[in-house]
Amino acid sequence: MAIGVKVLHRPESQVSYVRAALKGMALTFKHMFEKRVTMQYPEEKSTDGAHGMGAWSLTPRWRGTHRMLTDEQGRSKCVACGLCPQICPANCIKLVPGEDEEGNRYPLIYEIDEFRCVFCGYCQEVCPEEAIHVGVHYENAEYDRGRFVYDLERLSAQTHPVSSLWDPSDPRGE
Amino acid sequence: MTPEMKGFLLLSILKMLFVFTVVMVGVALLTLMERKVSAWMQNRIGPNRVGPGGLLQPAADGLKNILKEETFPSAANPVLFILAPALAFIPALLLSGVIPFAAPLPVDFDFTLPALGRFVHHGPMPMVVADVPVGFLFVIAISSLGVYGIALAGWSSNSKYSLLGGLRASAQLISYEVALGLSLIPVLLLTGDVSFSKIIAAQQEGLWLAFPLTVAFFVFLVSGFAETNRLPFDLPEAESELVAGYHSEYSAMKFSMFFIAEYANIVTVSAMVTTIFFGGWDIPFVAIGAAKPWALVTLAPGPVATLLSGIVFFAKLMFWIFFVMWIRWTLPRFRYDQLMALGWKFMMPVTLGYIMVVCVALYLAELAGVRQALLLHLALTGVSLACAVALFFVVDRGLIVSGSVARRARRVPRRPPPLTASS
To answer: Of A15, A53, A116, A148, which sits most exposed with the smallest number of CB within 10 A?
Structure first.
């Protein structure tokens, strides 16, 4: 997307200050009756769709705190392949794989330290099962530092929308 | 003490209480208005969390300022540091006492109180705390005292930023005091009096003085901005260069006092503009008591007339207060040399020239035998509008305030020193 740069050709000398001031005052007066751009934050949120996909909603590419997707039985889709802890540049994913009677691998422990995470989104990109995702979400306040290590249960319980990562080969998401 | 004096005293105390209350509450609400106006001009909403529509925001601010810590720089001069906010605050409030805010109200009473004796008052009561005969001379004298507060605040803080702010404030106020005083001379020439009641009376007979004395009005307005240290003249504060200027070292209620003084000064300047150039409490096309050439309605002096004229005065006052804020959120701050050049090289010569124009016009009118105020004012309006248009739209090309580029073009290139044989 090309960015249009507006170049203002300002007269450099022989300018009338009074006329310029009057022009500026007309502009500010006009702005008094224009639409307000303020979003009343705690009441309106950029993720709740009140503004649709308009000016104040988060971009779908936003990479926020993680979410683990689950299958129809409510089990996590993760097969404990170990790719995400391998690729994670911040080394914030802790994965201990387990195996059930039928030989299916599943995570015994799956923890993400959101304090160490740099929200690069590599875990989502590398995941073969489309299990772990970065979320379109930004309200993460907690009373306790320990609460920022999200375990599997917590990651699966998240309901916020997930990011559609930016694909360099398809920059406009077509 | 005679009963008449007691009656006068009683009414004066009541008016004092009224004016003081209105000004203090008004100043508090003006801080809210400023924030709202600035927000609207920037497509925002402004404070809206405290009370309905943010109406209690000034109360919350005041409470916060009282509860805040009073910082006290160890190197500051203790006496002057404490005195400075008061010195800025008192002249600002003092001036609200001399502005007539409504048509005179006939008050007649004669009663006796047990311990205090008899109170008598007959005849019209001017709706002003002190109808001083020296009028705007008093305002000019007292408003100049406000600079002591600012200069002393800057000096006593013992901080370089404060000192620079204080120095700038004194230089600026002295410079613009000249233009301010000169811009009132045409008013004196035309009305022949400095008292506010007489000036308002003169405007009722003719036109509001902004029309016959356009250039003087403009100069007065600009100097008024400079006197209140408001943008585009807020160099004493200049937060982008001087931290917060003269009040950098102040906190809590002492800082608040400077703030209140600034807003009280805005009220005073707006009231002065309204009274001297926009008819004061005069209602257009309505005559109150005295005869008026183009009155459509005549009101008898009484509570209704006083109330209506008071409302009209406050409407005009609010417009000019809004105008001050409008300018503030539109124009950027001047550079220091622009400020000085505007004051000394433009406003002062222009005002002196304009005084000559008005003198000549009045002399010619006298020769032509124009006695009626309205006719005289209309003739002067023509002359003044021609002057104003010539000044601000034809002659004004980088004359009033010029950018640095224009200055560079004007500068004479310096020749390198000639080479000598020895070098």
So the answer is: A53
